[in-house]
Amino acid sequence: MTFDELSTENDLIGSILIVDDQPANLRVLASMLKGKKYKVKKAQDGETAIMAAISNPPDLILLDILMPTMHGYEVCQKLKSNPLTKNIPIIFISALNDVFDKIKAFEIGAVDYITKPFQEEEVLARISSQLTIQTQKRLLEKDKRLLEIKQKKLEDEIKQRKETELILSQSRAFIFSILNSSLDGIAALEAVRNDKTGEIKDFRCVLVNQITANLFNLKVDQLIDKLVFKDFIDDKKIGILKYFIDVVEKNIILKKDIRLVHNRKKSWFHITAVKLGDGFSITIRDITERKNLELKLNRLATIDSLTQVYNRQSFDFRLKNEWHRCDRTQKPLSLILCDIDYFKPYNDYYGHQEGDKCLKKVASIMDTIVKRSSDFLARYGGEEFAIILPNTPSQGALVVANTIKKEVELANLLHQKSEISQSITLSLGISTVIPSSHYSPEDLVKNADKALYTAKQNGRNRVVANILNPF
Ligand SMILES: [Mg+2]
C-alpha cells in the first residue's frame, strides 16, 4: 500500500489521485498526466486512496473499478459519504471487457468513465472537462456564499432598521401621548441665528402641543417649523425675546408670570423655559384663576373694609416707597392728615352705625378728589385719613386739602353736636418735604400731625401746612 507524489512544481494546473491495482496502469496514466503539468498522486488500493483523499483532497480522482481488496464502487461510495471528500469528482477506469454497470457508476456519484486501453487525448479531454466543471462549481459556490453573506447582511440591516423604526414610532407615540395628555402648553424651540453675527434673532418651533397652539388660535401643524416671533408674537408688546435668549445663551431657567390678552380676555400664564440643545423647551400653564384670586386677596389685604380706601398697613408701605422715589428724583413729597371734627360726639349722639356711614361718605368724597394715579388715600385710623401726594409741593397739597374741606362742607352732613358748624367739617394738616438723609418718613408724618394739631387748636375746620425743609 503506497502512494507517491510525482511532482511538486508550483505551476501545476491541478492535482489528480490515480487509483489502480495495476502498477503498469498507474505508470502510464501518471506519466501522461505529469507531462501535462498535473500534480499526480497514486494509490494501489481503495483504503490507501481514501486516506490520501482525506488527508489532502485532490482536484479529481481516477478510480479503477476492479480491485482485489476494495471494489471501486465501494471506494466511491465511501468518498461520497465523507463531507471532506464528497465533492471531489471521480472518473471510473474500466477495461473494455470489464463487466461495468455505467448507470450504477453515475448513481453512486461518478462523473464520467474512461475505458482501457487509454486514448491519451480522450483521457486528457475528460479530465480537463471535469476540472473545468469543478472550477466553475467552486466559483459558483464562492459566489453563492458571498451572495448569502450579502443577503444575510441585508436581512440584518432590514431587521435592525425595523426595530429602530419600531422604537422610534413607540417613542414618538409616547411623546405625543405626553404632549396631548398634558393640561399645560408644551413646546420645544430652536434658536435661529444671524448668519454673520451668530446672535439669536428668533426661535423656530420644533415641537408643540395643541394647548400651546390654542394660545395662538392655530392648529399644531400651523406652528411647526415657523419662526414664532416673526410670525406670531409681537415682541414690542410683550418684550419676552430677551429672556428666552438668556435661557439659551446663559443657561438660565426662566420662570415668569406673564399677562396676555387671549381671545379678548386678559389671561395670566406661568411659563418655565429650560435650555434644550441650541434652543429651549417651555411649559405654559394658565394661572388666570389663581392669579385673579391672588390679586383679589392682595387687594382685600390692603383695603379698609369699611371705607373701601387703602388701610393703614398699605399707607405705611406706600409712604416708604414714595419717600425713596422722591428721594431719588429730589421731588417734593406732601402728606395730608385729616380728621373729622367732633367725631366722638357725633358717634355718641347718632350711634356707631351712623358714625360708620359718615366715615364712608367722607372717604368717598375724598376718593373723588384724589384722582392722580400716584396719589394715595388711606384710612389712617378712627376718623383720620391720610393722603400721600408724590411730586407735589406744599401749594399743590393746599389746593387738594382745601378742595376736600370744601366738598365735605358742601355735602352738608348734619352734625348737631359740632361746636363750630351744623354739618360735618374737617381739620387738615399738611407736611411737605424733599426727602433726604436728614429726615425719615416718620418725620413727615409727625410734622403733618403737628400741622393737624395746630389746625384743631386754631378752631378746627381749617387747613394748616408745615414745610419740613426749605426748598
Ligand atoms: Mg483492476
TrEMBL record:
Supply the Pfam families for this chain. GGDEF (PF00990), Response_reg (PF00072)
Keyword Coiled coil in record? yes
CDD domains recorded: GGDEF, REC_PA4781-like
Coiled coil ranges (UniProt) are 137-164
Sequence positions bearing 4-aspartylphosphate: 64
Entry's Gene3D superfamilies?
3.30.70.270, 3.40.50.2300, PAS domain
Q: Which UniProt keywords apply?
A: Coiled coil, Phosphoprotein
Domain GGDEF span(s) in chain numbering: 331-468
Q: Which residues form the Response regulatory domain?
A: 15-131
| Entries under PANTHER family matching the protein | DIGUANYLATE CYCLASE DGCM-RELATED, REGULATORY COMPONENTS OF SENSORY TRANSDUCTION SYSTEM
Which NCBIfam families does UniProt cross-reference here?
Answer: GGDEF
Protein name as annotated: Diguanylate cyclase
Q: What is the scientific name of the source organism?
A: Cyanobacterium stanieri LEGE 03274
